[in-house]
């Protein structure tokens, strides 16, 4: 009888070996039940490729990259290590491994792997910045300074990051002037470098210069996005992402670079896998930049079908109809927003500006009066209302009240918004208060100059010139 069972036994043993094959190879088994289907399919396919080519560093590395970019970092790390073991001259595997370790909070291990990268390519500036940051976080400021300075001397694309790293070390050592020197160098290299402005605000605060600190904080808040380190190797990793999140992130990146066709493709893919109101609004705005109003309106309406109360979609639709000259439709949409949310500042401002543009002054004043009942501390509404009342004096509010309104707008922004100060100076000048207006305008000019707003700076310079003539 045994001979009849032997084929079955051998067959069972064969399949058992096949099933445990990936375990023997060390292939991780992440829980793919909660990821989007296209992500799971890609990871499973890459696992099979590793099983078929277990001695290929590329197959292990590709699997690791896709686990990493889709938030399976702990599963990715052993795969990177295996890839690095199979090909010790390939830079990417120890580099990505080090970053994954760093982002997982394993700083000492990350530093060890960054050093492996240094042996392969010691002139790659993003590596030097990453290693400098890890060393600083580990409390090794002296060695961190060495790598930041090396990155700075290589004259690569990471100067602002290197200067900010050095500034952070000097600030930590209490050397405020040296820290300030490096931060100003970072800002000269990249004026929109948010981290440098935020750190410089702290330097000024500790130096007892609150006005300068306030300006830097305003700049840090203005440049809301963290400035990414330009890293061609890591961009390969980002390109591997196939989740709706990564399609959207790449879409936003291309949108910022003005690459509209590529941005459109990424957002279309994101919406294919995970449709949502915000995504349709982004897509609509991209079509607007191509002057494709019909398609833009369709996307905004899709957003509203997805979320009937999505205010951003109404606002975008209103702006589109205004551009097309359909003011009635634009006004109706803005009023719809205000029925949904009577505290939506941008809708009031947009509606008031449409009325002002078309000389419907009483309607503009009416909507701003209503707005201020809901939003009495909106600096933008206050200054717009004050400017309107001065420009069109057929109203019952006296000049003193108008000046108080403009002054309140300046106070709410801590006298740090050059546009609001410029308007306040204009109102003062219209009442013959030229010296006071000139003083305010000079402050506005210095602020606009500090903020790097060339258009506003030129506008204020012209106003100053007229005031000096008076």
Break the fold down into its secondary structure elements and pairings.
Layout: H1 2-19, H2 21-25, H3 37-52, H4 57-69, H5 73-86, H6 92-103, H7 107-120, H8 125-137, H9 141-153, H10 159-172, H11 176-189, H12 194-206, H13 210-222, H14 232-240, H15 244-257, H16 260-273, H17 277-289, H18 293-306, H19 311-324, H20 327-340, H21 345-357, H22 361-374, H23 379-391, H24 399-412, H25 418-430, H26 434-451, H27 454-469
Helix pairs in contact: 3-4, 4-5, 5-6, 6-7, 7-8, 8-9, 8-10, 9-10, 10-11, 10-12, 11-12, 12-13, 15-16, 16-17, 17-18, 17-19, 18-19, 19-20, 20-21, 21-22, 21-23, 22-23, 23-24, 23-25, 24-25, 25-26, 25-27, 26-27
Write a structural description:
This protein is mainly alpha-helical and 470 residues long. Among the domains are: 10-121, Serine Threonine Protein Phosphatase 5, Tetratricopeptide repeat (Alpha Horseshoe); 243-341, Serine Threonine Protein Phosphatase 5, Tetratricopeptide repeat (Alpha Horseshoe), CATH 1.25.40; 415-470, no CATH class. 78% of the residues lie in helices and 0% in strands. The chain contains 27 helices and no strands. The chain has helices at 2-19, 21-25, 37-52, 57-69, 73-86, 92-103, 107-120, 125-137, 141-153, 159-172, 176-189, 194-206, 210-222, 232-240, 244-257, 260-273, 277-289, 293-306, 311-324, 327-340, 345-357, 361-374, 379-391, 399-412, 418-430, 434-451, 454-469. α4 runs antiparallel to α5 (73-86), α5 (73-86) packs antiparallel against α6 and α7 packs antiparallel against α8 (125-137). The protein is flat, with a radius of gyration of 30 Å.
